[in-house]
Amino acid sequence: MAAWRQVLELSVEAEDLAQLRSISCSRTEPASRVGRAQILLAYISGLSFAAVARKLGWHHQTVQRCVERAFAHGPLAALDDRPRSGRTRSITPEARTWARALACRKAKEFGYPHEVWTTRLLAQYIRENAVEAGHPCLAKLVQGTLCKILNQEEVKPHKMRYYLEKRDPDFDEKMANVLDLYREVAELKAQSALAEGEPPAVAIISFDEKPGIQAIGFTAPDLPPIPGQCPAFAREFEYERLGTVALLAGWDLVTGEIHGLVRDRQRSREFVEFLTELDKAYPASTALKLLLDNHSAHISKETRAWIAKQPEGRFEFIFTPKHGSWLNLVEVFFSKMSRSVLRHIRVASLQELKDRLNAALDFFNRNPVVPTWSYKMDLPKVAEAA
Q1: Torsion, CA 283, CA 288, CA 294, CA 300, rounded to 10
Q2: Which residues contact 195 (CB under 8 A, 6 or more apart)?
Q3: Burial class (CB in 10 A: 0-12, 13-18, 19+), 226
Q4: Is the Cβ–Cβ distance between 26 and 40 less than 8 Å?
Q5: Cα–Cα nearest to 378, from 86, 182, 191, 237
Q6: Which uninterrupted H or E stretch holds 273?
Q7: Is CATH 3.30.420.10 correct for 171-366?
Q8: What is the largest CA-CA distance in the chain?
Q9: pLDDT digits (tens, 9 = 90+) for 39-68
Q10: Which pLDDT score, from 0 to 100, does residue 210 have?
Q11: Residue 244 scores a pLDDT above 50
Q12: Chain centroid offset of residue 245 CA
């Protein structure tokens, strides 16, 4: 039987040939481009249209059209679909702009109980009001077409992103005070390493409260894991609420010790009680600097009256700026507490929750962790000097 003969002589440069080989085995290119690259490589190797079709599983006319396009326009141009006229757009640019403008407003402004739009609700509103607004081309708008219109400008009216407004006019100054305090912590660490056994001249405490810790009780006992059957603990979905407690915690940034107080509420009297316990924990000659937020209990009359009775220089408060709790290192401790101790916790009573929180404080104080602030405070000065 005579061998199949080639109809067209297709010559490909070495650079194009290398790209064809790369595309033909790609796992990220569209399947159409990969298939056409394989067709051209097989044809260049000496196979006929029919032989290429049999080898790759294409129709021989598909192979012929691909090779003819490569012959006329080049091998790489033959990999892509030819431009087509398509149907003329029926939605005018003005109508698209009107639809996107609606998406940038809230649904509640148009009398709906919804806070923001869903794409289905927005498409329905547009259909009902398009003719009156002068855009009859949108009278039969469907949800999918609306999504395409919004995606062109990346408008997503069904989503909500949160931001934090900078409301403290002295934010930068207060942040600088906090960072200076952390610089002082680094100096105190170096001094404490040299003067072991001597009472510290200054103790810097990062303080905050964690209110509303829920005491959640069992309605049925947990079931233990069973090898080969159930890999994890099994827990009844229903639970019982037994109340809440508040954890007041101060983290000594030099020694790593955690000073904590577990109480039912978070008020000025609980804060004063914490300060009293803190006063007992340090020698009278040690100045105590507390880094804390702007909670009302920290600046109340009761708190100020108690501070006024203390020796001068014993307590000093450094406040973080509003919406600047991320500057307070004790938040790291609370995060660790939430992820390790409070995660999945179940108790039989409110008192058990208090006992376990106190036990957690003792557990962490067995091996204190000394935090380190890694903010590069000198970076702007270095940049200026450069």
Answers
A1: 50
A2: none
A3: exposed
A4: no
A5: 182
A6: helix 268-281
A7: yes
A8: 113
A9: 999 999 888 899 999 999 999 999 999 999
A10: 94
A11: yes
A12: 28
